[in-house]
């Protein structure tokens, strides 16, 4: 019983608590005990089937297609939509090199993609090149999400040598707005590194921009599209800032303008051959399917395809940073975690009416 609680039970209870808490916040269910009871009946029914009756579904694949690694929970920037960079650097918030070695000898040999991603900037690690040396020998496609603000040119050269795909965080082509959003960033350093990548990539889609849409940068979409074209980057992905359900007024008040800018960006992309990915909704508003990409809001495949491993070994659902935890890789094997009770509980509810509240307005683009 003790071993079960350490590897599975503690996360099961945490997930149940946080699920109900989020459900109340999102749907204003403080007094709706009937709906909470309905959720609990389904949850515990699934738990009873999986843990007590041994009715376990085999995942569609023995391993995911993609692993996302958060090498660090430290960041060099203090972006207004995040906050991780407000905290001082803490070496305890770096993923253990020993755990990465273990993953390289096991599950990372069996997946197709590895993305360095998370609540932190991978390239600021003092020994980042040690991690990269381990990873670059694997038979997979390496990807990195980066703010491109590290001055160490050797880091970028080694990533290019490893045939890395770059997803570059940039929310404006205007230096003032860029540095207002990404506090402590240098637009000149960013552009210098962007030029280095654009001169070195083997094809345009090896480097794409991730633009996080928020109130302050609504009018910056076109400028970023033009910058991508100028630097020979293959694509722009429009993400939407994650905010509370009651903090969507900026979308409501600006939807017509945003939609107009989406159409303009779409026309520009088609004319110049830039791959543009727009969300299929903004809050409660739907976006024309002629210009948008399907999101995971209504149907999600990620729980069957990927796992996001945090700096402390916690394995979570996806690259949208859902807080649900499958388990911890310091306590159990990846195989047990991937097919365990917590992962199965999430998958059973993933595309149902009582899916995790965090997923309600998901902007992950397929």
TrEMBL record:
Residues 65-264 form the Elp3/MiaA/NifB-like radical SAM core domain. SUPFAM superfamilies: Radical SAM enzymes. Keywords: 4Fe-4S, Iron, Iron-sulfur, Metal-binding, S-adenosyl-L-methionine. SMART domains: Elp3. One of its GO terms (molecular function) is catalytic activity. Its cofactor is [4Fe-4S] cluster. GO terms for biological process: molybdopterin cofactor biosynthetic process. InterPro entries: 4Fe4S-binding_SPASM_dom, AdoMet-like_SPASM_containing, Aldolase_TIM, Elp3/MiaA/NifB-like_rSAM, MoaA_NifB_PqqE_Fe-S-bd_CS, Radical_SAM_PqqE_MftC-like, rSAM, rSAM_sf. Pfam families: Radical_SAM (PF04055), SPASM (PF13186). This is Elp3/MiaA/NifB-like radical SAM core domain-containing protein. The lineage of its organism: unclassified sequences, metagenomes, ecological metagenomes.
